[in-house]
UniProtKB/TrEMBL annotation:
<dbReference type="InterPro" id="IPR045761">
    <property type="entry name" value="ODP_dom"/>
</dbReference>
<protein>
    <submittedName>
        <fullName>MBL fold metallo-hydrolase</fullName>
    </submittedName>
</protein>
<dbReference type="InterPro" id="IPR036866">
    <property type="entry name" value="RibonucZ/Hydroxyglut_hydro"/>
</dbReference>
<feature type="domain" description="Metallo-beta-lactamase">
    <location>
        <begin position="29"/>
        <end position="218"/>
    </location>
</feature>
<dbReference type="Pfam" id="PF19583">
    <property type="entry name" value="ODP"/>
</dbReference>
<dbReference type="InterPro" id="IPR001279">
    <property type="entry name" value="Metallo-B-lactamas"/>
</dbReference>
Length: 246
């Protein structure tokens, strides 16, 4: 599994974990993100149950396990949170921040020790040792209860399935040629994003943020001008094609 520092300023870090060369061919590759501060850290979309041992090993190379006080699940899909039951056995004092809508479903993955913080539809904030993380609503993109994470200090938006692409594990971590990247993500967004109204609401909200990196759950990360290219492209894209084609 590859590890990359997206941001490192003193004790405040963003780390990317992904591009697992040992993953099974019929399993979608996922990106996981760890935000660390001196005493606390949060793991964003921790991954599927099949990835747990690799993720635990990767995380322990950067922090001690008691420092991992928080987890975040953007929505309920198993590829991002089915490892919860195993994290639950490792973490004695942690909180999972996830949409209120999916609590009854996410708990099926296993929660005895980890506490559940149900995020209201309008979002919220998490103070991580003085670093403020914002939970940005992204409902219906593609889940009906869905959030992204924005760090204004690092200028990073963890964008869940928005910006996701089906890429090879040997592909670069960052988008290098936007036009060549479009075929890797176009149909996914057209089919999995059901609402143009929800899409446009998200774009309007996100354009107000200062973003240097847009870090999706799958595929390459958008950096600098590539962020704006993606927003312009996504804005003109018609989504919900399964309905439109009937």
């Amino acid at each position: 599994m590859k590890t990359h520092h997206l941001y490192h300023s003193g004790t405040h870090r963003w780390l990317f974990f992904g591009r697992d060369p040992d993953k099974k061919n019929n399993i979608i590759d996922t990106n996981q993100y760890l935000i660390t501060t001196p005493k606390r850290a949060v793991l964003l979309d921790p991954g599927g149950i099949e990835l747990f041992s690799q993720m635990l090993t990767a995380v322990l190379q950067h922090i001690d396990l008691p420092q991992l006080t928080d987890l975040f699940a953007s929505h309920q899909d198993p590829d991002i949170i089915s490892s919860l039951g195993l994290w639950d056995q490792c973490l004695e004092n942690a909180t999972l921040h996830a949409p209120w809508l999916w609590e009854g479903f996410i708990r099926h993955f296993g929660m005895n020790s980890i506490k559940y913080n149900p995020l209201p539809d309008e979002g919220g904030q998490l103070d991580l040792n003085g670093i403020t993380l914002q939970f940005i609503p992204a409902h219906y993109l593609h889940s009906s209860g869905n959030f992204h994470v924005y760090d204004a200090t690092a200028k990073i938006l963890m964008s869940g399935d928005i910006g996701a692409a089906l890429d090879d594990t040997s592909a670069p971590i960052f988008v290098e040629d936007f036009e060549q990247h479009i075929p890797k993500m176009e149909y996914f967004h057209q089919r999995w994003m059901p609402s143009n109204a929800a899409k446009n609401d998200w774009i309007k909200r996100v354009r107000q943020l200062d973003i240097e990196y847009m870090a999706p759950q799958h595929g390459a990360i958008f950096k600098g001008s590539m962020v704006h290219k993606f927003l312009d492209w996504f804005e003109q894209l018609e989504v919900g094609v399964a309905i439109a084609s009937n």
